[in-house]
Automatic annotation (TrEMBL):
Keyword Protein biosynthesis: no
Record-linked Gene3D superfamilies: MFS general substrate transporter like domains
Gene name of the record: mdtD
Membrane-topology annotation of the record: Multi-pass membrane protein
Organism: Comamonas avium
Keywords recorded for this protein, A-Z: Cell membrane, Membrane, Transmembrane, Transmembrane helix, Transport
Subcellular localization(s) per the UniProt record: Cell membrane
Transmembrane segments: 12-33, 45-65, 77-96, 102-123, 135-157, 163-184, 196-215, 227-245, 266-285, 297-318, 330-349, 394-418, 430-450
All residue ranges annotated as the Major facilitator superfamily (MFS) profile domain in the record: 11-458
Matching InterPro entries: EmrB-like, MFS, MFS_dom, MFS_trans_sf
Protein's name according to its UniProt entry: Multidrug transporter subunit MdtD
């Protein structure tokens, strides 16, 4: 199947549009958070629950998406997913309060959790192996355009219209997508029924929700310390119970044998710790630029393009770098650089020239992109057959969970510093600066994890995942 044929396939365009909607929504929101806080009567330093709700919902549902698509068919599930994403967008745009907005983001997250995995599954079934890589490359292009447009478009909409439009713009595209999905998604592709580990799914979901809500509650989001402690204990107990359940279940969500693969084990843990910082940065940077430095939403969104450009530039050299130096050396050194880049953003001040801030953001984008490329590849490189599909789903879940936890931790740290210094003039900027330094130091923990890789590991062809 040649390139011209690929580009004319409506199925690929449909999945690509869904991918674009997700990546655009993920990057357009952060720039609008300060304006949303002002409109809803909330502190801009305590808006992390809007991001956490979506990421946590997505992480929680990813393990079930494959089974649901097999059971009900890709056309039906993809259509429902896109419809839920549109419904969530409408509810977000109409939100009268932060609590309503958070619940609307949960609805959006249910749709988002199914859209990309089910779309990718439909493409996998529709194309032979030799055409699949070309098809997925075509789909990935809009996913790179979304982050490029998101920050600037979000800033422009907030400044010249209102924050509600960052959600309204999803509606016409999504409605067309629903109609197209019903027309072009494969029909009657349900697979033979297989058992679903409902008990394991419930335990894993409760564990992720409990731990994430406990971390979010540390920011003072209406929860007392006793409730935070209870949620944390029950969350950890649920995760432990899932592990014991998986050891004796004939069909667990994720087979414990997967963790016998060293590269997967180290890669997943490294992803978790590294993304505590890299997941928090997109939430913190717009706050720093708008709340700390007083920039307009459009100006702040334009400056964030430096991060996207740095990321796109490094994507081209990431594989060659790892081929030359090996996974272990690259990830150890790059994890240190990532922590330092995040901490250095805490040095940003109103007296600093904007070109220097742009340089910092560009450098962060470069280092962050190298980290994603290397640690995603090392996580999946030794998987094959059935373990590849399961490992890929597990990695996707960990990525979203880590982003949720990173934003929740950053919000808790930010709230703590803000409470400590609120009597001082300029306390918001001080709290943001201290939070960047703290999150940067925490990110350094990933270096300890990646030091467990074998020193002679080098790049071999491996599937990559989107970030």
């Amino acid at each position: 199947m040649n390139k011209q044929t690929i580009e004319k396939e409506p199925l690929l365009w449909l999945v690509a549009v869904g991918f674009f909607m997700q990546t655009l929504d993920a990057t357009i929101l952060n720039t609008a958070l300060p304006s949303m806080a002002a409109s809803l009567g909330e502190s801009p330093l305590q808006m992390q629950s809007v991001v956490v709700a979506y990421a946590l919902t997505t992480a929680m549902l990813i393990p079930a998406t494959g089974w649901v698509a097999d059971r009900f068919g890709t056309r039906r599930i993809y259509t429902v997913a896109m419809a839920l994403f549109v419904l969530g967008s409408v509810l977000c745009a109409m939100a009268p309060s932060l609590q309503f907005l958070v619940m609307a983001r949960v609805v959006q997250g249910v749709g988002g959790a199914m859209m990309l995995p089910v779309g990718r599954l439909a493409v996998l079934r529709a194309y032979p192996r030799e055409a699949f890589i070309r098809a997925m490359t075509f789909i990935a292009i809009p996913g790179q355009i979304g982050p490029l447009l998101g920050p600037t478009l979000g800033g422009w909409l907030v400044e010249y219209a209102s924050w509600h439009w960052i959600f309204w713009i999803n509606v016409p595209v999504g409605v067309l997508g629903v109609c197209a999905a019903w027309r072009w998604m494969p029909q009657n592709d349900q697979q033979p029924r297989r058992s679903f580990d409902g008990v394991g799914f419930a335990l894993l979901a409760l564990g992720m929700v409990g731990v994430s809500l406990a971390l979010d509650g540390l920011s003072g989001a209406g929860m007392g310390r006793a409730l935070v402690a209870v949620l944390l204990v029950f969350g950890m107990a649920s995760l432990a119970a899932y592990w014991m359940h998986a050891l004796r279940s004939p069909t667990p969500l994720f087979a414990p044998a997967l963790f016998g693969i060293r590269s997967l084990r180290v890669g997943l843990l490294g992803n978790l710790f590294a993304r505590l910082g890299s997941g928090a940065a997109p939430f913190l940077v717009p706050l720093m630029l708008q709340v700390g430095l007083g920039l307009s939403p459009f100006h702040a969104g334009t400056m964030m393009l430096a991060t996207v450009l740095g990321s796109m530039l490094v994507k081209r050299i990431a594989v060659h770098t790892v081929m030359r130096f090996g996974y272990k050396r690259v990830l150890q050194v790059n994890s240190i650089l990532l922590g330092l880049m995040i901490a250095c953003l805490g040095l940003v001040s109103p007296s600093q020239p904007h070109w220097l801030i742009l340089l910092q953001l560009f450098a962060f984008g470069c280092v962050n992109s190298m980290q994603f490329s290397a640690m995603n590849s090392v996580t999946l490189k030794d998987l094959s057959g059935e373990s590849a599909s399961s490992g890929n789903s597990l990695l996707s879940m960990v990525q979203m969970l880590a982003m949720s936890m990173g934003v929740a931790v950053a919000g808790a740290v930010l709230a703590g510093f803000a409470d400590m210094w609120q009597a001082k003039e300029g306390y918001k900027l001080m709290a943001l600066q201290a939070t960047f330094v703290t999150v940067g130091v925490m990110t350094l923990a990933a270096t300890l994890v990646f030091s467990q890789l074998e020193p002679d590991e080098r790049v071999r062809p491996a599937p990559d995942t989107h970030d």
